[in-house]
User: Fold these one by one.
Assistant:
Number 1:
Amino acid sequence: MSEDNEVFVYPELTGRCRIYTDVAKITSENIFQVLEEAMTIHMKNVDNMVLLMRYEKGIQPLVRKKIIRKEVNIKVSDNLANQITEFKLGYVWGQPITYVQRGNKDLKKSTEKENDFQDDSISMLNELNDAEYAFSKDQELGRFVEITGVGYQFVDIKRNFDGLCPFDLVTLNPLFTFCIYRNSALQEKLAGVTFCRTKNGTVYYTVFTPDTRYEIKDMREITNGDKPKNPWSFMQHSGEINPLKMIPIVEFNRATDRTGCFERQISDMNALNVEVSDFANAVAQTTQEVFFGVGFELPKDDNGKTQAPVGGQWIIANNTGNGGTPLLKAISSTFDYSGVQENIVSKRNTILQRAYVPIQTDPGGGSTGSAMNMSSGWSAAENSACKEEQILRRGKAEIVKLELAAIKASTDTPYDSPLLKLEYSDVKPKFIRNKTYDLATKVNSMVAMINCGVNGRVAMEQVDLFPDVAQAWADSRDMIEKYQKSLIKKDDTQQQTQKRTMSDLSDQTGNSPILDGMNTDNGGDEDVHES
């Protein structure tokens, strides 16, 4: 809210607009027109992204005007936006995003030797990303994605090779980055753009198309590449060849409508801020009460102005002489503090629930295990994270494709490196949400799948137990495969029943009214505790 106590009006936030163009291909002849049209749309997105970034930091103007007792105007920001963002960053992005093998058999590779080659190559790719601090850059990307709804990463051949990683991975600021798509059914990505503004106001753009890299100054001239062959052309340069032959800027979306994680709840959070602020004002106004007096007259100063009483001072006043007893008392009003507090707590929990953030208070007794996960919101949070993961995986798959292209294009890559033969279709990005409270269920599930003959790597991927599945499988493969072969040699009579390693959440089904009504039984612990 501004200083003159005016009401702040929030714009309608409906997600970031995707930028389209009608041209079939961006060239040096049409790049200025396309870029100018794209910047118009991008700057509208920037206005909304800046508002969301400020809102998450706690800059949340109130949407009401203080009319009564304007001198008491406390403004409180409960800032649930930050709480929602921090939970998403910890739950969805908290574990490093690693790469795993897509499958043991596909159209190109089906032999055991080829599978071993894929495992080793993917482990090497994970090591290169660790050397490039991808875990930190992904966390930076996650903050942009969760707050603004979009994020960008850039891959390029490393110019100053450090002996470890032949490519650069950079997270770009979405305020200065965007992608341009063709206005067609396929919606092909035609260009990736990043720009910067110097202190003197000059703007430098870098535009990547699949075949060319353009350096543009102030949207007036291309400053890199060869001069055009046409002597009558107004262009001074035509850009450089893009060595990756792909657009190296990748766009990430958090949701299909490109909204932030708390964007839909802003109106509710504004209402909560008003209620919390008014509650604080009510307490302050009760403390700083207004006094009402009758039957006396306060003295005046030399200018004829009435001398108002100040807290802690005696009030010496002249009787009006109309008879009666002079009266001075505070004006007070009845305020239901407990009811307002309960309403604030209820509103906060409702906002968190709508943002798929689990509550951090005890929901009460009578439920354990899976039912507790449902009642506290963890199951809904997991479903929301799974949906978001499917959208984010597309961006990470593009990153893999660019990294492999940079590895093959780099002169610093050894000629016999296994990564030169690795195809991006063999690699699958893996998001890990390591829920330790569900550890027993994960272990039992993995053991059951291994005992049933499921490939150990597939079992590890399914249970989301290890931060680096490829490395865990490489370290455990010999032992797991040896164990599975020993099971095959056993007689059928020796493997009639598989005992679980430990009790897990499934044992609580019979004791959880949310899951099983009022039917309470022993939860199926017989197979765990019997000798």
Number 2:
Amino acid sequence: MRGAVVSAAALLLVGLGTALPARAAAGTPVAGAGSTWALNPMDQWRYAMAASGHGIVAYSGLGSAEGRKQFGYGILDYAVSELPYGLTEGGVTEKPPTRPFAYVPVVAGALGLHYNLRVDGEPVTDLRLSSATVAGIFTRTITRWDDPAIRADNPGTRLPATPVVPVVRADASGTTAALTQWLADRQPAVWGAYCAAAGRGAGCGTTSLFPTAPGDVAVAGSNGVTGYVSRPGSDGAITYAESSYAQSGRTVMARVLNHAGFYTSPTQGGVTAGLARAATDPSGFVRTGDAYTDPDPRTYPLPIVAHLIVPTATGTSFSTAKGRTLASLASLALCDQDTSTYLGNSPLPPNLVGDGLRTTARIPGAVPGDVDTSGCAASAAAALRGAPQPRACDRVGVPACGSTAPGGHEQSIVTTVEPGALVISIEGSPHVVLPAPVPDPSGEHLHTSGPMTPVTVTDSRPGNVGWTASGQAGDFAGPAGAGIPASSLTWAPVVVDPGNIREVTAGPPVPAGDGDGLGRARTLATGSGPGTVDVGARLDLDAPTGTRPGTYTSVLTLTVI
């Protein structure tokens, strides 16, 4: 069985609309910076703005703190941040800008608790944690994985005596603020005592700089902390990061106890359900703490939200012409939540979309109707409809689903392991239509981008044989013999849903200007162990500026071996 090679091929049609021969942007350009987590959806919305003629938008992922700082200085037209102005760090309170401003929520996601834990060499994949236990782990009062508090969260599950290794952010981050806000609200006595012992004062509350203690590992960036947890030899490590960082399949995330008494995972529907009753404050900032006590049993209680920080008055460098472009960007982001969810985030619920649109109307120069907002709630409605109720075995006090609790009797069980099969299939339409391309910021190419239809890889073979899924495109054929070389098409693979497969990793991105692009076979994903996984990719096409107008078609062949 280990020597068998199983392969399959799927066809994907990529249609290209009429190319635009010249820059068609109608709005005045705007520039912003901030959250690195929001960088991918912001890039997609920027291209959509240019494609629809609403204006050129620049964005740099410099980090939320730097974005807020530059917006406050008046350098930027807008910023993107998970954190509001006004946090106190080390006794110094961040001053808000003197220019009038407001917050517009645009990206919703979850703070996941990523961990690496094994028993007799096998990974623990369904860990459950309460806020009290998480507080104990990150304040160092719980130091081993077989601690009674962790066992109480996971009755019937075998847990090792492995030391707990908390991995925290070394830099200021919105994820640290989200975790510490939750701990300060849910476990104020434990968190207050830890802050005091760390020299930060008993009232340090929400902080973007984690107060480290002996035994902590401090690493910069969400990529850094999740990379540390997933590396070989990191058994016992646990960290916090956006749940989208688990899409590569490198880490697993714990279920977290919610207010209704269920341990839930950071699914898209769980996050949307938890934010469905969340309110915004007068400035437009989302009160994510409302999810801590949400009674919906589907709620995942650790949401995070990135906000556009927008001017609400004109000033030296901000005009109503810029305001019209910025208002269109905000409206597009609020109403195109499918782009964000494809990248592993969650759709904003209708209440927050409505609040965001009302704030957007306060931007000077905003023109009602510039962006169609009639279908803004569709993504959230679909996520809420598809969010399953928690299982009975996810309730607090009940043995964990698939627990290893010993029985009272022994039985002899016999089974036969069949060879199994390796299958790849397209779960949806095989036809992908990319938006009409527009000149990229350099003016050297006509750019368009969009997601391919995800494919499902199902491996029922025993023995952890391993597989590789790859894709290769043919040249685009257009009108009257015109064409676009396949080397102009590139992709950024992503694990859409890791499912129940043992290990899966998205293939490396193929950058623009690579030379070959998808003209030769490129890795979409690799996996090991039986199970089912959904993988996909963002497709990017950079066609020559001399491309003739017309519709262009290519075939992307997907193979798994």
